[in-house]
Amino acid sequence: MIEAKIPLLGKTLSELEDIVQELRMPRFAAKQIALWIYDKKVQSIDEMTNLSVKHRDLLKEKYTVGAASPVHAMRSIDGTVKYLFRISEKNYVETVYIPEGDRATLCVSSQVGCKMNCTFCMTGKQGYAGNLSVTQIMNQIYSIPERDTLTNIVFMGMGEPFDNLDAVLKVLTILTSDYGYAWSPKRITVSTVGLKKGMEHFLQESDCHLAISLHSPFPAQRAKLMPAEKAFSIADIVELLRNYDFSKQRRLSFEYIMFKGVNDSLIYAKELVRLLHGLDCRINLIRFHAIPNVDLQGCDENAMLAFRDYLTSHGLFSTIRASRGEDIFAACGMLSTAQRRKEI
Fold this sequence. Notes:
Helix content: 25-40%
Shape: elongated
Oligomer: single chain
């Protein structure tokens, strides 16, 4: 049986240094390889022309770049594109490209499915099939046709990023390091339901923005919507966040999906003001997009405007997030590859 080659995509500089040392190549070759991958974005080792033929042949014996194109794409009427990436014979993940004016955001996935089982999320309904590797996360960014237009990346696709913390942190390192993409951390946001240990580690190791899925300020109701509340209460999350400074570069935001007759009255707005009082943060209000077999509805525009205005007038900066890609099931909470596994 032929042994699978090891991908170079997703390797940090120190890992590349270990590889060139193992192959008895000059130490500076590690930076050359990093440049070819993360700056030039090559598809093959043969394209690394400032490495000698001998060294390229040595690399090719055991290693490959490891990039893989998406196997399918769907384009929305609003310009949003949803890409499907094959992870294994039966597993896939979805990645969403969202162009908007002079911004182009990529929503990436960190897991196949998700363990959190939030009521309103199709990914959670799909169940959990495994963590993505660093290569598989990076490949979503590396292999879309619009990769050179990207201005922002959000870890808000399939999966809970802090449930795959080591891989996500390594990706953030590559994206923000000089040898990698050299992006400012301000261009990257990581979303979580609030896994406490992972969040603490992230806040210590990274300067990227943090987004917390909130959806209800009342613990009993939040637990019905988000079972993770039972282990990671929103009250504990907020108290932990009070220990960090969000007044400078790093931004803290709370994601709040609005459901008609469930969490859209001003009672909830008042409780949000109380819960988040004194915390330097913003609220992103999100329209709920109906998903199969879930008895929830999105609230109307007037209710969202009144909710936003109340929060803003009481010191909580709030915005209503524009809905994108709903017609191709690419909007918030709509990503799922359960059916795709059967079709392909």
